[in-house]
Every structure is written in C-alpha cells, then in structure tokens.
Design a protein that fits this description.
The complex is a heterodimer of chains A (412) and B (144).
Chain A (H helix, E strand, L loop, with lengths): L17 E2 L3 E2 L1 E2 L10 H13 L10 H20 L8 E4 L2 H16 L5 E5 L8 H10 L2 E5 L10 H9 L2 E7 L11 H11 L2 E5 L11 H4 L3 E5 L10 E5 L1 H6 L10 E4 L4 E3 L13 H17 L1 H20 L4 E3 L11 E6 L4 H10 L2 E2 L1 E3 L4 H7 L4 E5 L6 H17 L4
Chain B lengths: L2 H4 L2 H8 L12 E6 L6 E9 L2 E10 L2 H14 L4 H5 L3 H7 L7 H24 L6 H8 L3
Antiparallel strand pairs in B: 1-2, 2-3
Helix pairs in contact in B: 2-3, 3-6, 6-7
Classes of the chains: A alpha/beta (412), B alpha+beta (144).
Chain lengths: 412, 144
C-alpha cells in the first residue's frame, strides 16, 4: 500500500476530535502509545466480523483463513525487520513480556551466583525490574552503564565491567523513552561479540520511528510493542537468535506449546510455538500486521525524516523560552522525536495540567524511568513526543501553551 | 475546574514559599508516603506533647497542588489535640484552598499529605496503645 503524507491525518479519526471545551486535540504522547489508523482498526474488526476462529487446529474454512492471516504477520514482521527465519518471531503481549520471557526462560537456566548483568541508566523499568528479580534469585549482580551530561551512554564503563569479568548479558534500549537518545548499538554489539557476551535490545521506542535491521544488528534478543507503532495494545514481538532459542526452556505451559502431553511429562512443540502457549491474541496480531503494512506504505526513512524536522523545529522554539531545561542530546542525529524538559520551578504535573486545558496531551512524571530521574536529579519531567501525523502547527500550540504556563506561574 | 480556579494566588504562593517545610530532629511520629504513578512524595514529622501536636514539619517533592496542600495541612494541624487532628477531613483541607471540585486525576496530589498525616498519627497511636486506631488506618488507606 502507498500512504500519502499530505492526507495522513484523515486516516486517524481521533485526531479530528476536540477536548476540554472545544480545543482541537494536539496529541504529543506518542512515546506512551500512538493513535491507530482506520486501516489497523478495520483489520481487527474484519477478523471479528468476517473470519473469527481459533487458529492452528481446526480444519474448517474460517480456522484456515484465520491461521493464514495470523501466520502471515510473522512473515511480514520478519521481512520488515530483516529477520532471516520466521520461526525466530515470537508473539508476546508487549516489550515487558518479551524481556520477562528472556529473564525467565533464558536467565534462569543460564545465570548463576557471581554472574553480572549489565543494563543502562536510561532504561525503562521493564528493562530493569525483570533483571533485578533474576539477580536476586540467583545471587547475580546488576550493573548500569552511566550517561554523560547529554544523556549518551559512557561506553568506556562497559569496557570496565567486561574487564571485571563474569558479564553474561548486556541489555539496552535502542532509544531512550525519556531522553530520546539513540543508542550506539553497533559499538555495544562489537564489544559484546568480542567478549562472547549475550545481548538484548529493547526496541520499543526504535521500531516505530526508524529503519531497524535485526540481522545486521546481530543481537541475541530483540523485542518491541505493537501499540507504540500504530498497532493495538496487548501484542508485541520477541526475536531470539537460533543459538538462544535452543538453550531456552519454555516460558508458559499450556495448549499449543506442546508436542505430546502425558501424565508426568510432556515434549515441546517446534519453534516458535514452544513459546506461544494458549490461544494467542489473534485479532491484535492481525492488527499489528496491518500497522506494519501501513508503516511500510509511508516508508521508515520518511517517518524518521518527518520526526527529525518536527523535533528540530520544537527544540529551536523551546530553547528560546527562558527557564526551559531540555534533557538529552543536542545533536538531532543522535535523538528521536522525544523531548523531555522542565520549566523553571514548575512541577511537570502542573505543566501538563495547564497544557491539557489547551488541548495539548503531553506526559508528566518519571516515565517509568526512576533510575534515570535520580541521575538527572529531578523528581519528574514533562515530555512531548511526536509521530508521523504531528505537524509544526501543533508544536506552535505547544509553545503557546508553555507561554500560558509562564503566565499562570508568574515566571520571569 | 479550570486552571484559573486551581492555580490561584494562594496555591502559587504556598508552592513557592512553603510553610513548616523541613525535617525535624527526633520527631515523636513520622511517616513517608508517595503516589507511585506520579512520583509525588511527602514526609511528615510530628512533635507531640500532652496529646497535642506542638510542632509539625513536612518535606518532599511534588506539584504545586501537593506542596500547597501540605503547607496548609501543617497550618491546620499545628496546636490541635490528637483527637482533633485525626478528625481532619478531606473537605476541611480541600475547602481551605477552594479545591473541592478538583478532578479525579489530581485529587491524589491534594490528599497525599493528609494520607501521610493520618498514617503518622496511626503509627503513634498504635504504639501508645490507643483504642480504635484500626479505623484510622482504614480511613487513611481509603482516602483516595
């Protein structure tokens, strides 16, 4: 399919609505979740209206159709991200489940007392807490790659950790959900490859916004969520290398993941089904497939280019407002379309509250990154995050709303 | 409520210049609480003499509403008997700042200090074997 950027907002009926006494909605919380185009919503409802059936088992027409549609999404995801083998695409509920699956199914049999797992200071809680649980259970240690004053990872520290020994896993996000920093993944990957250390890439913020090639990245695990890329909530993907998949025990036990079940023991189904127990989220996997089609119709390079334009426009306007502190890299090439900021001494909740009255939806709080908040020495930040359907006109509304914050709080 | 009604002079003043702000040496009762979703956090310290709250201090990080309500709550509470203090209601606090109609998503910002105070009182009263303290704990836990 081809998607015209000129008319793209027409594909998202929600963007035409008003909020708070007739103010046009300006949706700038895309790092939390994105809006869904008709094409995705229709794909989901067409499944329920037209061919709803459970998959993989029954022989009748509806089941065959549903199975074919569900499985075709696996192929499309593999093609979209340059994954060699469709059996490496495992459907999960989202990034959080993807990471928990790895920490459980790979981590439990492979991590022992004295081992080290390395993550970074700008991780989402979902890439910290599962590893804390694992480390606690096994007596392993969790270490953090620190950030510099522009919110970039200080990779020399990773060299130190590797030199100290026993590092079994390095797990990092490809783009920070708070700072927007794009991680220098090739540098981390080459250090880890050389030292024989396994890697997990949290791509929840990256896959929706830029071209990603899993094969050339060369990581062991890679995971992302559907709802941050115009797909539905409750579905995501975990990729694992062949080498890892063979070492992993099942995660959930139940239907579909087994080959044979006897009273005392069972044998496991082939990949990827060994990791997809129970009736999967059929409708939302189909919806995710539609989101991939839609994004391919736009072209990921166009998505990235549009967001770079918006981000650089917003940064230029925001920097001119006295009292604004912006976090993260100053070089637009090193950051995605996420701008976290603080405004003088005004608490981010108050900023977001006043913005909301102008119809502007931004996020305030710790963004599930309390470790990072501690490093930045702030309780919270405000965050505006963009997507392909946002416009510079909307950023002008954001700037006007910031000026209202200044008036209400009598700044300057 | 519109921001003109919420962010009035008093709220802005109190959030900029909080009263009774700081830590207390050797408090007789203390409690820390936080709203996990938004990250607001408040500590309240109490000095108690002859069943009276002779001094109260708070510290923490939060939005203007949370900080203003904390300040006002310490003003209301100071000098009250323990019985009077445990009877302070959310309407008393919200009424003081004209925030009775605050929307649901922000009410937890306003009531966090009151919840913290009630838990501090509960801990103190339970330690000193007062009767019927369980109802105070339930009230604090169910405040919002």
């Amino acid at each position: 399919m081809q998607v015209s950027l000129l008319n793209i907002r027409k594909d998202f009926p929600i963007l035409a609505r008003t909020v708070r006494d007739g103010k046009p909605l300006v949706y700038l919380d895309n790092a939390a979740t994105t809006q869904k185009p008709n094409y995705v919503v229709d794909a989901i409802s067409n499944y329920y209206k037209g061919y709803n059936a459970n998959i993989h088992r029954a022989v009748y027409a509806l089941a065959e159709e549903a199975t074919e549609k569900y499985e075709s999404v696996r192929d499309r995801i593999a093609r979209f991200l340059n994954i060699q083998d469709r059996r490496q695409v495992i459907f999960v509920r989202g990034t959080t489940e993807g990471i928990n699956l790895v920490a459980y199914a790979w981590g439990r049999p492979n991590i022992a007392k004295g081992d080290t797992i390395v993550t970074t200071e700008y991780e989402h809680h979902s890439n910290i807490v599962p590893w804390q649980l694992l480390c606690k259970e096994k007596g392993a240690t969790l270490k953090y790659i620190p950030i510099d004053d522009q919110g970039r990872l200080i990779l020399d520290k990773l060299d130190d950790y590797i030199a100290e020994g026993n590092v079994k896993m390095v797990t990092f996000s490809l783009m920070s959900n708070v700072l927007g920093t794009i991680t220098d993944a090739p540098a981390i990957m080459s250090k880890c490859k050389e030292a024989g250390i396994h890697t997990l890439v949290d791509a929840a913020q990256a896959v929706p916004h830029m071209r990603v090639d899993v094969s050339s990245l060369g990581c062991d695990f890679f995971t992302f969520s559907g709802h941050k890329m115009m797909g539905p909530t409750g579905v995501g993907v975990l990729y694992a290398s062949h080498n890892m998949l063979e070492k992993m025990s099942p995660f959930h036990g139940g239907g579909d993941m087994i080959r044979e079940v006897h009273k005392q023991e069972s044998t496991w189904n082939d990949l990827p089904y060994k990791f997809e127990a129970g009736t999967p989220n059929i409708a939302d996997v189909i919806g995710l497939g539609a989101a991939v089609d839609y994004l391919e119709g736009i072209g990921m390079d166009n998505v990235r280019m549009h967001e770079m334009e918006l981000t650089s426009y917003a940064l230029n306007r925001m920097r001119k407002i006295p009292g604004i502190t912006i976090y993260g890299p100053t070089d637009i090439k090193e950051r995605g379309g996420v701008i976290s900021f603080n405004f003088a001494d005004v608490h981010p909740h108050d900023v977001a509250h006043i913005m909301d009255e102008e119809g502007v939806a931004i996020r305030s709080g710790h963004h599930c990154a309390q470790v990072l908040m501690e490093e930045l020495d702030v309780a919270a930040t405000s965050r505006a995050s963009f997507y392909i359907y946002n416009t510079t006109d909307e950023i002008d509304v954001l700037i006007d709303a910031l000026q209202k914050v200044a008036r209400v709080f009598k700044l300057e | 409520m519109s921001s003109r009604d919420i962010y009035h002079e008093m709220i802005i003043d109190y959030s900029r210049n909080p009263v009774n702000f700081g830590k207390m040496d050797n408090p007789d009762a203390t409690h820390h609480d936080a709203n996990p979703l938004c990250g607001d956090s408040v500590d309240i310290d109490l000095k108690i003499d002859d069943s009276k709250i002779s001094d109260i201090k708070f510290h923490g990080k939060g939005c203007a509403i949370c900080m203003a309500c904390s300040s006002v709550l310490t003003e209301i509470t100071k000098g009250k008997s323990l019985d009077e203090a445990r009877d302070i209601s959310k309407h008393d606090l919200l009424g003081e700042l004209g925030l009775e109609h605050l929307q649901a998503v922000r009410i937890k910002c306003a009531l966090l200090p009151l919840k913290t105070l009630k838990f501090a009182l509960y801990t103190y009263l339970a330690k000193h074997n007062h009767d019927s303290v369980e109802s105070l704990k339930e009230e604090a836990a169910g405040l919002y």
